Amino acid sequence: RIQLDQLVASEGGPHVTVFLPAPQRPMEAKEDAIRISNFSRDAVTRLQENWMPEPEAEDFIKPLRGLAEDEAFLADRRHGAAIYLSADTFKIYRLEDSSEHQVWVDRIFHIRPLLAALHSQLTFAVLRLSKKQVSLFSATRTGVSEMELTGLPASFEESLAGVTADR
Prior knowledge:
The protein is of the alpha+beta class. Helix 2 runs antiparallel to helix 3 (54-60). It has seven helices and seven strands. The mean pLDDT is 78.
């Protein structure tokens, strides 16, 4: 969450965001080297158009371009990846959910796939109230389970009975 807040707070200029979905076949990971090289070339062009001259753009993109030759990164591509690059940031996050192959050069980072990943790990509670039953459930994106309630009234009627008895 802290890292996400840092990405959101970073603004002003140039921010490169790249999304790579998880490879569908083992050989597709090697194709990612070509995709990353193409994204790097595209990013350099966009940086030249809006931000800086070509030599600076080439230097700026070096960390991204280096991933195309990083055998460890390419070999461990079982998951999707979100890659963030700015003057003071170079971060790579694994994504469970695939997104399209995309590259952006903008004033800010694009974080939507990270939000989906963050929400997939969150848990929340659902309280069910009726006259005859009170239930509490713990839920995630992938499942729901009922929690045991101890020391609480089992129903709305039982709760009201306790209030009337006290008066």
